[in-house]
């Protein structure tokens, strides 16, 4: 379990460091498409590099979906979720250290790739829009993960399918919420940015967890299983 814990810490660190890092350090140069690809490609890298150790969940919503689907037990879920949040916080801290060395960087202005909604954030979408998007997108994401990793699925393609799905979700959702579908990914930056990011954080914990849990329940019921 110690090796799995470390794999989830490292994998989530990779996701947040490169995904949020793309937004903070290179957002103006690479645009929304580049940011979406950064998040998707980090999942591909972590899936193939660490998947054999822990499954590379890197996301409490994914782990909750796996729990509800009967893939892991409650203890494993708790260990994974703790590791994922720790990895995300560590990545956000390292990213802040790097960004702070740049000319003109101000965390209050430039942020750390935190999620949000409402006036002044991206497209200014409402709370309802944020909740619906995050819940639906996470349901789809976890459904793809459970399907791509089920018995009989082409194992060699799972990481690519999951990474491309996360890219697609970002292409649709960056303007809505910055795209979370991952409580850990949201917790790390929000804790350091504070303010509105922290007060809105509950949305990016509750909605993804609900979406992930529903995906697991539906999968366990056999509706999204091949067998």
TrEMBL record:
Subcellular location: Cell membrane
GO cellular component: a single term: plasma membrane
GO MF annotation, one: water channel activity
Highest taxon listed in the record's lineage: Bacteria
Pfam families noted in UniProt: MIP
Lipid bilayer topology: Multi-pass membrane protein
Transmembrane segments: 5-26, 32-56, 77-105, 125-148, 155-177, 197-218
Predominant localisation class: membrane
Keywords per UniProt: Cell membrane, Membrane, Transmembrane, Transmembrane helix, Transport
Record SUPFAM superfamilies: Aquaporin-like (SSF81338)
Family of the protein in this entry: Belongs to the MIP/aquaporin (TC 1.A.8) family.
PANTHER family, alphabetized: AQUAPORIN TRANSPORTER, MIP17260P
Name of the protein in its database record: Aquaporin Z
Organism per entry: Fuscovulum blasticum DSM 2131
């Amino acid at each position: 379990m110690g090796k799995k814990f470390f794999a989830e810490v490292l994998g989530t660190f990779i996701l947040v460091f490169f995904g949020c890092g793309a937004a903070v350090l290179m957002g103006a140069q690479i645009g929304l498409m580049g940011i979406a690809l950064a998040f998707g490609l980090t999942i591909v890298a972590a899936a193939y590099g660490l998947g054999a150790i822990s499954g590379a969940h890197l996301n409490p919503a994914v782990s909750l979906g796996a729990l509800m689907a009967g893939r892991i037990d409650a203890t494993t879920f708790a260990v994974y979720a703790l590791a994922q949040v720790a990895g995300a916080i560590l990545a956000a801290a390292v990213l802040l250290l790097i960004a702070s060395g740049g000319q003109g960087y101000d965390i209050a202005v430039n942020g750390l790739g935190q999620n949000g909604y409402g006036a002044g954030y991206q497209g200014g979408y409402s709370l309802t829009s944020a909740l619906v998007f995050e819940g639906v997108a996470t349901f789809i994401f976890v459904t793809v993960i459970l399907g791509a990793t089920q018995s009989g699925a082409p194992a060699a393609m799972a990481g690519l399918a999951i990474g491309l799905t996360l890219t697609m979700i970002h292409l649709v959702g960056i303007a809505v919420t910055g795209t979370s579908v991952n409580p850990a990914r949201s917790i790390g930056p929000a804790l350091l940015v504070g303010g509105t990011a922290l007060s809105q954080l509950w949305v990016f914990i509750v909605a993804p967890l609900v979406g992930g849990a529903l995906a697991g329940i539906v999968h366990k019921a056999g509706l999204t299983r091949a067998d």
